[in-house]
Amino acid sequence: MRRGLYAYAITRARQIDLEGPWLISHRGLALVVAEVDLDRFTGLECDEPDEDSPLAVLVREHDAVVRTVFRHEPVLPLRFGTVLDGADAAVRLLGARHVEALAWLDRVEGRREWGVRVRASGHEPVNLDEVSGTAYLLRRRAQLAAAENARHDATAVHQELARRAAESTRRDLAGDLLLEAAYLVDTGSEEDFQAEVHRLTGELGLSAEITGPWPPYSFTTVEFADA
């Protein structure tokens, strides 16, 4: 059995009660680690996207530890699958990006990530047996114009929400999504932020889905895994 240290996140070097993982500290920073069987990470790229797959189980374990730390201290989640040789490698990792890590911890302290997905309201299906070709084309043209307007409205929603967040980032769209974005929001402003999501999308006839709160997965851009 091959053993290694799995690294979950970077936080401040303060006492946190964890069941299993522990902290390796260096110059005011701490790396959250646990000893793991490296064979668990072999062949994960071949996993089917299933919630009970070995990959999904490991991702949930990773997120659970990050969330536990996040309840106590600001946290910089590390890339999933960051495995180190031992404690010396952990200290090197902490030292390699020490200044950036401290700055990012200050940046995310007192803030949590919220995800927002925006979709257009659904259209009634067209029964082709009940409309003429001309009527169908006119309706189709109106639908295309409405879709373009909805995309413009979703951009306006993002711009307004971004002004109410400390940080924001848009993600690539898939399916019927008009907007998928993440926002780093002060904990004291979260209720107002969510109310604004619903107000803006409601006024524009869009539907919104809010997820969170999350640790700042989308806003810790310093790369630690290469240390």
UniProtKB/TrEMBL annotation:
<dbReference type="InterPro" id="IPR009430">
    <property type="entry name" value="GvpL/GvpF"/>
</dbReference>
<protein>
    <submittedName>
        <fullName>GvpL/GvpF family gas vesicle protein</fullName>
    </submittedName>
</protein>
<keyword id="KW-0304">Gas vesicle</keyword>
<comment type="similarity">
    <text>Belongs to the gas vesicle GvpF/GvpL family.</text>
</comment>
<dbReference type="Pfam" id="PF06386">
    <property type="entry name" value="GvpL_GvpF"/>
</dbReference>
